[in-house]
Amino acid sequence: MGQYWQLFNASSLWVSCNCGKPGEFFCSEGLPIHIRHFTIPAWSEQSKAMLCAKYPQVTHRSASPESKLLCLPDELLSMIFKYMTGLADAVCLCMADDRMFAIGFPRVIELQASAYANWAGDHVLCMGDNTDDNDLPESIQGTVDDYLEEWWEEYLLSEDYGRSLDAYLNVKDLVQKVETGFYTEEHVRSNRSLGSWPPKGFKSTKDWYLYKEMIQPKYELLHPWVLCNLSKGKYVRADVVAALTGEKLSESEPFISGGIDLGHALLSQICWLSVGSIAMSYDDNLHCGPWAGDQFEVTSMDKLDLKTTWEDVSDDIAKILVKIWESEYGADWKEEVRQRWAW
After folding, report:
1. Tell me, what DSSP letter sits at residue 6?
2. Do residues 5 and 126 lie in contact, with contact meaning Cβ atoms separated by under 8 Å?
């Protein structure tokens, strides 16, 4: 029969909806893990210059000389941006004046990372529903214990005390799923009104178009993109994974529109189950993922922390992915990929 699985972010205590069984989701088009949520946005200097050239009347705007805010030195304006936590707010302040644009744009990129790469650096695993609470990866055991202790104290003081614990937990999980999901509230708020026409508060259509371009992240790096295991100091190159099915990455993004990508690479290492079937032909301990509960991000080779000694495990992970697909679909597994993603 197999067991049903869920993605678990132990840092934010977010649990996904039912993903099904590994045999159902691992080789499907609907992979339950989205690699974009680990990928740090990056704007090239060329894109920033093109943005200024495209909207000169906005990015070279001069505010009123009577503005008390603009009487402040650059250092204080930089501190104001530093303490801003809303992406939409930072973008709008950038658009007020060309000096604000120059000072605040780096903070906009940082806030894009918080809103869009909101799983970067988090402890993540994919867990079977029969996993023993006492058999969790060491990297998250302490986090879960702290959460359960806090939850138990909350439960004892709640109106639900004496009722079914399962019912209480289900309600809490449902609320958590609806409120957060894969995206942060800031991401949802910033993008809620991204339509074709400028809403109230924007002086012109040009202002509105610039706002939309600055809200959306860009992924523009000239160096190879890598999935980093921050906990173990290992990385997987996106181009090596893409080459398994002959895919070519965009010059500026680590994402593949169809086929095997870094999401499969990550999922192959983070599945965790105490005992039982994974409903797959592949039988090489997929359920004992060596990276389960570790921290991850997707960035470029030149952005790797130089204080860490990094190990390239791209070829090892690629071999595992090939074995998984071959186990499920035989020697013609590439043809199966072509049919599923129609490339």
Report:
1. E
2. yes
Burial of 167 (0-12, 13-18, 19+ CB in 10 A): exposed
In whole angstroms, give the CA distance from residue 280 to residue 259. Answer: 19
Rounded distance between C-alpha atoms, residue 29 and residue 319, angstroms: 20
17-42, pLDDT tens digit by residue? 667 777 777 777 667 677 888 999 88
**What distance in Å separates the CA atoms of residue 26 and residue 326, rounded to the nearest whole number?**
13
| Most confident residue range from 42-56, 134-148, 300-314 | 300-314
β-bridge partners, 286: none
**How far apart (Å, rounded) are the C-alpha atoms in residues 243 and 338?**
14
Phi-psi region of 302 (alpha: psi -120 to 50; beta: other; left: phi over 0): alpha
Give the number of other CB atoms < 10 A from CB of residue 265: 24
Tell me which residue of 121, 119, 125, 123 sits closest to 5, measured CA to CA: 125
Token code pair at residue 308: 């860490």
CA 340 to chain centre: 24
CA distance 45 to 323: 41
β-strand pairing of 271-272 with 124-128: parallel
Closest CA to 324 of 266, 264, 273, 274: 264
Query: pLDDT of 182-216, one tens digit each?
Result: 444 444 445 544 555 556 667 778 888 888 888 88
Q: How far apart are CA 136 and CA 140, in angstroms?
A: 7
Q: How far does the chain reach from its first CA to its final CA, in angstroms?
A: 33
